[in-house]
Write a structure and sequence with these properties.
Elements lengths: L2 H8 L25 H24 L3 E8 L5 H8 L8 E5 L5 H4 L5 H4 L8 E5 L8 H4 L1 H5 L12 H18 L2 E9 L2 H13 L9 H8 L1 H15 L6 E5 L3 H19 L8 H17 L6
Helix pairs in contact: 2-12, 3-12
The protein binds adenosine-5'-triphosphate (ATP) and magnesium ion.
Length: about 300
């Protein structure tokens, strides 16, 4: 299957009609990791990203913000590590958003996010993001209570209000040269169960296990409803959501690398050309260096 067609399948272009149930967590578009084509797609995607990132950095005008959201053990961290593995670390910034600090709670929910968006020329990765504010905070009302909002603002409309703030914020970023692309790593409840068991079984993975993850697992249906609502409300052509099938980690990585590659290709960053006076100056520098002759090593 062509990359473009594959991406279209997972990009939410018609948010009004979006239903999570229409997306299969184990989808691989007929690819198999045992076959050469999948393997070459994995390596080609990373290489293409690395090349495009170099151009983005050299041009220093646009930025890319990639948002990652998922249930625990969906493979977010591994996917980020894989996809960015070829990219020069200087051109990439990863932010992991944890529970907000006291200082962060004393500001509006976009404050800490706005401070962390990528600079021009960079790829910014959000490992969790402002979307936690309509996911975990929606599922756990006690978290909302901690946010110290004036009570008149905490109404049944609060989630719609937040969606609107998020849409406007992302639109603003796009208008100012930051491209936004969002990934929901869609893992099935059964696959999560298997991965939690593997974490318990393997001593090297046990540190990853957290009792909190089991508590969230019990709220699975509430989370899925929140994800569905969120994607409907915030997938827009300038800042689309991709629902990435995540039961097969290798396939999720192919999809993410391809979607990020596409975002960069649409920016089409250009390496600045050295011309005119500046080029003349370089010619003079070359002449001077050549005239010095080989150095004696002192
Ligand atoms: P790992 O894969 O290592 O477990 P993680 O992303 O799950 O990584 P944790 O430190 O386990 O990192 O979890 C971060 C926690 O912070 C999550 O439970 C998440 O829901 C929570 N969190 C993030 N942003 C917010 C927010 N705005 N409000 C409340 N909780 C938040
Ligand atoms: Mg965790």
């Amino acid at each position: 299957m062509q990359l473009e067609k594959m991406l279209k399948r997972f990009r939410v272009d018609k948010p009004d009609k979006f239903r999570l149930a229409d997306y299969d967590c184990a989808d691989t578009c007929g690819l198999s990791i045992d076959k050469a084509d999948a393997k070459s797609m994995l390596t080609d995607g990373v290489q293409r990203l690395a090349e495009m990132q170099e151009r983005l950095y050299a041009e220093n005008r646009s930025a890319v913000l990639a948002v990652f959201q998922a249930m625990d053990a969906a493979g977010k961290d591994g996917a980020i590590a894989h996809v960015m593995s070829g990219v020069n670390p200087q051109g990439c910034q990863v932010h992991a958003f944890k529970e907000p600090s006291a200082e962060e709670l004393d500001h509006d929910f976009l404050w800490r996010v706005a401070k962390s968006v990528p600079e021009r020329g960079r790829i910014g990765i959000f490992n969790r993001s402002h979307y936690e504010e309509v996911l975990v905070v929606r599922v756990h009302s006690e978290l909302l209570a901690k946010e110290q909002l004036p009570s008149a603002l905490v109404t049944k409309d609060i989630w719609e209000d937040r969606f609107k703030s998020i849409r406007h914020f992302e639109r603003h970023l796009v208008r100012n040269g930051t491209r936004v692309v969002k990934f929901f790593l869609h893992v099935s409840k059964e696959e999560q169960r298997k991965r939690f068991l593997a974490r318990l079984d393997e001593p090297a993975k046990r540190w990853k296990f957290s009792m909190g993850d089991i508590a969230e697992r019990k709220l699975w249906d509430k989370y899925m409803a929140a994800y569905e609502d969120m994607i409907r409300a915030t997938s827009r052509p300038h800042a689309p959501w991709y629902v990435v099938p995540a039961d097969h980690k290798w396939f999720a990585r192919i999809v993410i690398a391809a979607a990020m590659g596409k975002a960069l290709e649409e920016i089409d960053p250009q390496i600045p050309k050295v011309e005119g006076e500046a080029l003349k100056e370089l010619t003079n520098v070359r002449k001077a260096l050549e005239a010095e002759g080989p150095s004696s090593g002192k």
